[in-house]
Design a protein that fits this description.
This protein is about 25% helix and about 30% strand. Strand 8, helix 5 and strand 9 form a beta-alpha-beta unit. It binds 4'-deoxy-4'-aminopyridoxal-5'-phosphate (PMP). Acts on leucine, isoleucine and valine. Keywords: Amino-acid biosynthesis, Aminotransferase, Branched-chain amino acid biosynthesis, Folate biosynthesis, Pyridoxal phosphate, Transferase.
Length: about 300
């Protein structure tokens, strides 16, 4: 990924992609103390727009605050940087990755005087879990790794180190031929996917776990709003694994995953074993919203 043309915003200026390197003694590389965002921009009839840019930037600042990292830029500067990166790379639609990390001014956990760096990269990214799977649905498997305990990893922070757990869980199930991991919280209740929130639909009611052991996903919030707009009841509550086995429909949400139907859990079909009708409706509503074809939430589209 490092050897390509293009520009990355690095500490306040656009630098050629290949020159965006950092020292091997970078504190974040050793200890994982850093935070990032995953944002998407879509081509709309009125030009390229970043979806819920301000909410993503707000979450990035909250993540930094949780990790007690001092941000050297304002939200306005980082919003502008994300737009600038899309323009510089001539991207009409893209995945955007802002990241905040410490420098190499000291080694050891106790290092002081570390400088905070910020990068913003962007690239073209299609359907995260496969274009076919957006219709067909994916096969997931409960991971042997549990999701974060609330007082161990702080889930409100989209922290680099939290993704050790995600990566272990995902790669375990990928090796076994599944598409994504289902992660349970430390008490055994359904938490989320390795990079997605989860929704379960039974008798027309949507349920999703609260965000104690899951990321406070922006797509999750968006889909909750869209579901309510469509007249569905949405409940945040504890969900058991066997509820997933017996529900009518289930889907994942995420900036990368958008709305991805789940067709199978632990080798059992979910509902009819294909994308359910409510999932299809909400998926279409989501895609139409982010692509600027739904005039209802103009504040959620930041045109570049
Ligand atoms: N959970 C985890 C662990 C994630 O990494 C993501 C992706 N950011 C999500 C949920 C979904 O969050 P969002 O909708 O804000 O992308």
């Amino acid at each position: 990924f490092a050897d390509r043309d293009g520009y990355i915003w690095y500490d306040g200026e656009l630098k050629p992609w290949r020159e965006c390197t950092t020292h091997v003694l970078t504190y974040t590389l050793h200890y994982g103390v850093g935070c990032f965002e995953g944002v998407r921009a879509y081509k709309t009839p009125k030009g390229t727009a970043i979806f819920r840019l301000e909410d993503h930037t707000k979450r990035l600042f909250n993540s930094a605050k949780i990790l007690a990292m001092k941000m050297p830029y304002t939200a306005e500067q980082l919003n502008a940087a994300q737009k600038e990166v899309l323009r510089a790379n001539k991207l009409e639609s893209a995945y955007i990755r802002p990241m905040v990390f410490y420098g190499s001014e000291g080694m050891g956990l106790r290092a002081t005087g570390l400088q905070t760096h910020v990068i913003v990269a962007a690239w073209t990214w299609g359907a995260y879990l496969g274009a076919d799977n957006m219709e067909r649905g994916i096969r997931i498997k409960t991971s042997s790794f549990q999701r974060h305990y609330v007082n161990s990893s702080l889930c409100r922070a989209k922290a680099n180190a939290n993704y050790l757990n995600s990566s272990m869980a995902l790669n375990e199930v990928l090796r076994d031929g599944y598409d994504e991991a289902l992660m349970l919280d430390p008490e055994g209740f359904v938490a989320e996917g390795s990079a997605e929130n989860i929704f379960v639909i039974t008798n027309g009611v949507l349920s999703t776990p609260d965000v104690t052991s899951a990321l406070d996903g922006i797509t999750r919030r968006t889909v909750m709003q869209l579901a309510e707009d469509h007249g569905y009841k949405v409940v945040e509550r504890r969900i058991t694994r066997d509820e997933l086995y017996t529900c009518d429909e289930a889907f994942f949400t995420g900036t990368a995953a958008e709305v991805t139907p789940i067709r199978e859990v632990d080798n059992r079909p979910v509902g009819e074993g294909r994308r359910g009708p409510i999932t299809a409706k909400l998926q279409a509503a989501y895609l139409s919203l982010v692509q600027g074809q739904d005039g209802n939430y103009p504040d959620w589209l930041a045109y570049i």
